[in-house]
Amino acid sequence: MAKTLAHNWSFRPRSYNSSCTCIEGTCHNTIDGDGKCKPGSCQFSYTGDNCDKTWKVCPAFDKKLLHCHVHAHCEIDRPRRQPLGGLLPLLSLLPLGPRPRYMCSCNTGYTGNGRECFPIDPCALPDRGGCHPQAKCIQTGPGKSVCVCDPGWHGDGKSCSPIAVCTVHNDCHPDARCVLLIPGQRVISS
């Protein structure tokens, strides 16, 4: 929202960002800020505009360091060795063939290339977190969600069935007939 002063002048950040994207630093969310981290405010060992990059140690003998996103880890992609044919099985223990490749991979619940990772919202995916069409998907964290059946429906959210109010609430007059309008609602007619 723009701040209006007594002279009716309007001030607004140059590139307004409604939320702070700074992770391990101080957010620059003042009138001239952009929602990223203030320059020089990153915590120890963090870098980047959002203080979201840090060094990760790869699980290998040489303990290689990679500059990965905060929500990523280092992996080793070991190429498969070609069979050595009739050579002694001990030769297969030698480090022959292509060298392993080190890479950053986003943690579970995040997507990206490992240098940039973004939280996955299962509710925004085409299957809406696996929820039934008559259920609401609620994101509970990166890559996590719960499903809740709509009013008039019951179930676990992944599977929902209409509530048959005419059979559940059999409080109709003996000369009346209960008619289901939409799940959870009824009309009594005579």
Automatic annotation (TrEMBL):
The record's annotation in InterPro entries points to: EGF (IPR000742), EGF_STAB1-2 (IPR056806), NELL2-like_EGF (IPR024731)
> By its UniProt entry, which PANTHER family does this protein fall under?
INTEGRIN BETA-LIKE PROTEIN E, STABILIN
What Gene3D superfamilies does its record include?
Answer: Laminin
Localization terms from the record: Membrane
Q: Pfam families this protein is in?
A: EGF_3, EGF_STAB1-2
Q: Which residues form the EGF-like domain?
A: 119-161
Q: Does the keyword Nucleotide-binding apply?
A: no
Which keywords, in A-to-Z order, does the entry hold? Disulfide bond, EGF-like domain, Glycoprotein, Membrane
Protein name (database record):
Stabilin-2-like
